[in-house]
Specification:
alpha/beta; 12 strands
């Protein structure tokens, strides 16, 4: 499918799939969306409300990203790991890796942190299917496969669910997929996504998640955060 680089409302670039009229990040601001959904309501929420209570600070936080894509979410998470001095083990799953020419046209390093250009480039240059140390606080493993083929159980503290929208890939937002996500999370684990569709929320609840609606990033009224509680049958909606 034909793809092109576009500039979003906060000045950061993203990739657009023209046939679908779908983007890797929000047209209202790629960096803004990533910081709001995945860093603020995912990583920082878990770090502040769960991680400190459950394990020593020296214990790594394990994150699974559904849709590694441009590496923006991974880069922002790496920077937060450096700031918090919190070790993070990051796994990014992507069925169709972005090519080098597209990565070179993105401007995340220039807008976010030019002094960490080498780390951003390393994230994209290290081989797939192996774990690599990007810094003393951040390890990365990129896995090239379909989301339905994830078999991890009780491994991750946080899932960044950043798949293409249900409008163009509804098969990625089903009970079957969220059951895989539920199994992959540890107890008290958190899944965050930019989506707020009712069908997505119901699919999450059906497999056992406790789901809450939160204010969305610029351009979206709401987003969803789901939590894996100890009992699969404790699912409800927090208002």
């Amino acid at each position: 499918m034909k793809r092109k680089i576009i500039t979003t409302s906060d000045g950061s670039k993203t990739i657009q799939i023209e046939d679908w009229n779908e983007q890797y990040h929000s047209i209202h601001g790629a960096i803004q969306e990533a910081n709001h959904v995945f860093i603020k309501h995912g990583l920082l929420f878990y770090f502040q409300t769960c991680h400190r209570e459950l394990v020593p600070r020296s214990q790594p936080i394990s994150i699974l990203e559904i849709g590694f894509g441009t590496g923006l979410n991974a880069f922002l998470t790496f920077l937060k790991a450096e700031e918090l001095l919190q070790p993070i083990n990051y796994v990014g799953v992507e069925a169709y890796p972005v090519n080098v020419e597209e990565i070179q046209q993105l401007n995340y390093v220039e807008l976010i942190s030019e002094k960490h250009k080498a780390e951003f480039e390393k994230m994209h240059s290290v081989p797939w299917e192996e774990q690599y140390s990007i810094s003393p606080t951040f390890t990365l493993e990129k896995q090239e496969k379909f989301f339905k083929d994830i078999t991890d159980e009780n491994r991750f503290n946080i899932i960044y669910f950043d798949a293409f929208g249900a409008r163009v890939q509804p098969e990625l937002w089903t009970e079957d997929i969220f059951s895989i996500m539920y199994k992959a999370l540890k107890d008290k684990g958190v899944l965050v996504t930019y989506s707020a569709k009712g069908s997505v929320r119901r699919a999450m609840q059906a497999v056992g998640f406790t789901v809450e609606r939160l204010p969305g990033p610029p351009g979206k009224r709401e987003m969803l955060r789901a939590r894996k509680m100890r009992s699969k049958y404790s699912a409800n909606v927090e208002r």
